[in-house]
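Appendix B. Chain record.
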Amino acid sequence: QVQLVESGGGLVQAGDSLRLSCAASGGTFRLYALHWFRQAPGKEREFVARINWPAGSTYYADSVKGRFTISSDYAKNTVYLQINSLKPDDTAVYYCAASTDLRMRYDYWGQGTQVTVSS
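Structure tokens predicted for this chain:
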């Protein structure tokens, strides 16, 4: 069983930067990839970025390329999402998810962290 705990969200102004964290625990040896998703009010959850574990290959949704950076600290079992030049449209609950094999199913989810961007 893998537990994921997100942190780092908050209320920020447009143009600010934010770094979200997702700490994994309990069975991290099973990790194959970690993902970030977000869900804005009234919208479906959408994929944001993925990082393979521990190799570090990264993938991004086209909508966030250039402003979002996913990274990891293997020693801390933590994945980060750096968000620059925040926009009100980035307002959402950001979730971390874990895959345990190459089928890339989302086997585990965190509880999410709220990011609110004011204009």
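Further analysis of this model is presented in Appendix C.
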